[in-house]
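Hi support team,

I'm opening this ticket because the web form for multi-chain structure prediction keeps timing out on my end. I have pasted the exact lines I submitted so you can reproduce it. The total is 313 residues across two entries, so I didn't expect it to be a heavy job. Is there a limit I'm missing, or should I split the entries? Thanks in advance, R.K.
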Amino acid sequence: MPDLLTHILVAWTICTILGFKWKQFNGPNTALVMVGSVIPDFYKIIIILNYFHIYLRDVIAPLHLPFGSLIVTGIVSLFFSDKKTAFLFLSLGIAIHFILDLLLINLNGGMFILFPFSWDKGSFNLISSTDYNVTIIALIVALIVYLFTREVKKSVYES
Amino acid sequence: MSLKIYLYLKKIAENRILKLIILILILGCLFIYYADNYPQHSPYNTINNPDKIAFGGEVTAVNSDGFVLTNSYTKNPQTLKVKSTTPVSLEDIVQVQGILIAPGTIQSTKVVLSSKWEDEFVIYRSIFGLVILLIIFFWYWKFDLKKYIFIRRH
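Hello R.K., no limit was hit. The queue was backed up. Here is the completed structure from your submission:
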């Protein structure tokens, strides 16, 4: 995975850009997309479990696969009053997460994108999971989008 | 009569607890299915492809002709001796692909290396991101303890 900061920044940037066209991408819904972008990494709980000598890596791995993440999204969306809207925005977040994760170099062949329907693996093998340059680029783009948005809002307010 | 059945089914479908139980059961089934079938479907496992190996882990020893990798995310830590010319240091995180040349030893064909600090830096960035996310999320949403749902603040 790229780090959570990158996932969150990319989710925020995409929602802010989409917000110029669609008003549904407001603050609360953007926050939902950002939460959705970290849902697949609930799988990283294995780091804590491993510390306590509980080895479940090969059991809970579906949490970090699209179908498993969608089920978790369904569970999380039950805790919102408008479940359908919450599910849609959280799902957009997990889609953003997996698009980023598909870029990662994975010598094991990549992730089981269509699990449980297929065991085919996929990965574009472009960037290392520890490459901090990706985070820097995401940070710069988010900053540019933030400054641009602020200017647009300022000009709308003044006119 | 049919209306009664329809209303009854609708009531069940609207039951949050029931939905929660069903989704948790589906997730449990996915876990079991994955754990049962993963060993047969890994493209570089020893069953399907006894010569070609893909492995990831931490460098636990460095030799003149390579290094030793240990994966400690299993009950019995797996260790693999890798023959490689790639310079590595102890505690580096390495992904390696190679050909089995002896039991527990491979000749590497591809190596992806991350230093220990690069690996730790990912965790620090992630924790920072998580803190930012929690602040933003609870800026817009709050949890209603009576209804057990998140509601919008603004």
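A quick check on our side: The first helix of chain A runs from residue 4 to 18. Let us know if the file doesn't open in your viewer.
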